[in-house]
Amino acid sequence: LADNALQCLHDEDYDRPYNLQNLNADTLIFTSGRDGVSLDGDWNFCVDLLDTGLRQKWFSMLPQAHEDKTEPWDYDPYEGETVPVPSCWQMLKEKWYFFEGSAWYTRAVDAEPLAAGRRRFLRIGAAQYDCKVFINGQFLGNHYGGSTPFCVEVTEALQPGRNWLMLCVNNTRTLDRVPMRNTDWFNYGGVYREVALYETPSTVIKGVFARLDGEGIAVDVETDGPASVARIRLPELGIDQEVVLAGGKGRLDLAVRPELWSPESPKLYKLTVEAGGDAICDKVGFRRIERRGTDLFLNGEPLFLRGISVHEDDETKGKCTSEEDLRRRFADARDLGCNFLRLAHYPHHERAAEIADELGFLLWEEIPVYWAIDFANPATRRDAENQLRELIRRDRNRASVIIWSVGNENPDTDARLEFMRGLTEVARAEDPTRLLSAACLVNHAKLKIEDRLAAHIDIIGLNEYYGWYEEEFEELVAIGRNSNPDRPVVISETGADGDHTQHGPEKGLFSIDYQREVYEKQIEILSRLSYIRGISPWILYDFRVERRQNVFQRGFNRKGLIAADKRTRKPAFEVLQGFYEAQKREVE
Length: 588
Ligand code: GCB
Description:
By secondary structure, this protein is of the alpha+beta class. The strands form 9 sheets. An 8-stranded parallel β-barrel has the order 23-24-25-26-27-30-31-32. The chain has a 6-stranded antiparallel sheet with strand order 3-2-4-10-7-8, with no helix packed on it. A hairpin with a 2-residue loop joins strand 7 (about 130-135) and strand 8 (about 140-145). The chain starts with a helix and ends with a helix. The model has no long low-confidence stretch (mean pLDDT about 95). Bound molecules: (2S,3S,4S,5R)-3,4,5-trihydroxy-6-oxo-oxane-2-carboxylic acid. (2S,3S,4S,5R)-3,4,5-trihydroxy-6-oxo-oxane-2-carboxylic acid binds near residues 345, 463 and 493.
């Protein structure tokens, strides 16, 4: 038997050499304001349910004229079907709708010769969930985590002339992943955010973190390469200073008082950093978020979060988002009267926080530590911690982001507590300036908020579905009375399904009328609880999910205030809008 046929027969460990987690937060480079070469567009594509590609090493077969081919490989990466990048394969063909497994993406990359000392990096905005990168047959690395960006240095691998870039993307849900097998959102697959190539000098800026610190501003810079100083400029504040780099890192403390960023006045400053000829540029806002007792303060002013939760989901594009889609989302949130969005349940596209910075919205960002993941597994913990680091390093210059959330409705076991405490430590080490939260638990026997994790976070997120999963509204009143939290509580979810179509019932569960009633009752009860510092009901738009298949759901979670067409508003929209208008009047 030919070599490749033998490889197909053995099942053990065919993927072990490629299952490193070597593309991670430490290999990220900072890309704001950099010009890259986009690699979006058509890529050759093939789904590979049996992982034949890894067994036969499809990536090692470089293009050959047909008559020169000596082995009958089962796929030719250089011919055949193409798909656009970014995209989710489920949205492209009906036969791929429920496909879970590996898929191969291949494209040519034509590169100019690189001048001495120059470097190149490939950045993939997101690939769901596991992505192996090959260039010209060489394996460069693997990334886990479906919603954060990753980079790989390709200085050596990319040759002058034509190169072949291949990605093997696998979206199989497994017990050890984050999230694991069971979620309440759709398991899309593919390279669904932008891919680009960046060229830098021998020093590359890997990280920049600008924020208020004490009475002034602090800017941290992290580089890789020989440069020994970095130059930091905030022209509008008259700042143009050099900072010495030790081990590639430097910090500048500036005794300046910038105009503060807030939803009412989202002031942003241009920030540039240069080191060894490398340069980045970002727009940053400065603001202070704090909690004292059960209160929240933004720039010293009491804060109530008028929020809405939102998934990254689109009826036709799946998890693939666009500028237009993101701007519509914020326009709808503005109409609703929001100053806050919960970007559930995983890191959304990075443009979301950039637009929120510009428009003046506060954000809760989170990682998919969702329900019962494998808390006792060290590999799962490494994966979760890495996703958190990647999210924070990507978005920590966004003034809009005030909360990092480390989990959602996780069972209160010892293993979970240990795992989640680890996440809070990672978050505080990466970014001591923001508040931490998680959707915590209620003890339904005692009818009170009770979760050991609460002691380790700043804001207790509470998902409660009185009027929907829980029938007795009186119990919500009792929870309100019995809980005596020592820190702010945000109702991170509440809501009810409402089918707005001709299939929807007139009355009762799944009717839009019932959904409206639930909102009315929730608002009536919650607005009486003194420690509630905000709400982000579930959810702005209906979203696709495999598990919901009754006659009203038909493959969608229909708790949206707006239908999945992102146009049709349900009556509950106005109820929440009315509450937020009253809240705004109270503040004024
Ligand atoms: C929850 C989950 C959310 C679900 C929602 C629901 O508690 O956090 O992901 O989609 O309930 O609709 O059941």
